[in-house]
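Sequence only, no structure available. Ideas?
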Amino acid sequence: MVARRLVNSCRAGLVDSLQGHSHTLATCHGDACMADTAIRHDWTREEVAALFDLPFNDLLYRAHAVHRAHHDPNAVQVSTLLSIKTGGCPEDCAYCPQAQRYDTGVQAQKLLELDEVLDRARAAKAAGASRFCMGAAWRGPKDRDIPKVAAIVSAVKGLGLETCATLGLLGDGHAQALKDAGLDYYNHNIDTAPEFYGEIIHTRDYQDRLQTLEQVRDAGLKTCCGGIVGMGETRLQRAGLLQALANLPEHPQSVPINQLVPVPGTPLANQQKLDPFEFVRTIAVARILMPASVVRLSAGRQQMDDAVQALCFFAGAGSIFAGDKLLTTGNPDVASDHALFRRLDLHPMEVVEQAGTVHADIAERAEGCGHGCGCSAAA
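Reply:
I predicted one. Tokens follow.
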């Protein structure tokens, strides 16, 4: 009898606790968390650093509230990345095995034939991908390359997939030509904080990257722009990377957060691995700073256990690359991702076609999202 009274008392206390917590959650989705759901482009380094310094559970709580306010927390956008032109890059990015100056075993190859790209795109779609991303190891495409890439983009788009390309620095008219061919997204990462950039890359400057991003936006393409962590930067410099992304004139629609994959032969081959919880913090802060963007859990997943990936999804990651290779580095195989999705009750984001363009990143609603972020249905 005493035991039963204790159980009943505990149950009553638990209900009261949950009811109070439920009220807190409801409040967080209303006025109390309005600041976290507003779209801002004026973040200071101190503000971003303060988010990184929050207690881990507090940071994840805030990030998940923002994620749930703007996105389906159980849907994950699935992309596949294919290298359509591998190796031989003249740049000196310290992390990249495709730089011709590093002895990494990657051999320079010509642009893939259209039929081979289409075969890989069909396989990606059959495996559940909604977006097909194509990368070429160039400093930037030459004018003569654009019609060839445009033909590939148009053919992949014809399969009902979203299209994304990462080709390096773009010249005059290149972004518009790719847009006209059916390109949805252009990827061009800023890689790291402005003050750390010179420690990683010397063959192009930070402004070069910003100029290409401006061309992409001016052409009406969606931007895919993020960076790499774990390259020896400090936490304050990780805050600087996210601050730079969040203060762009328009938040990138896709924000890939990569964990460095050290490759033998590159200058960062022996770089110490970033603490996995610090990576989760980076995902969470990115989610808070750019509420409507889709944060992608990108390179480095093969080195993460399932529990860390689950924390990243909770913290706000809403996209992954699927397939056993990302350009030239390893990635979890499709079967492993499917198994993880089942265990976490996640599902791939559905592809919705609107006005001839496939949209799977942001649910664009005619009256906005209702959370004071200023979003609209304009595609």
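The radius of gyration is 21 Å.
Hope that gets you unstuck.
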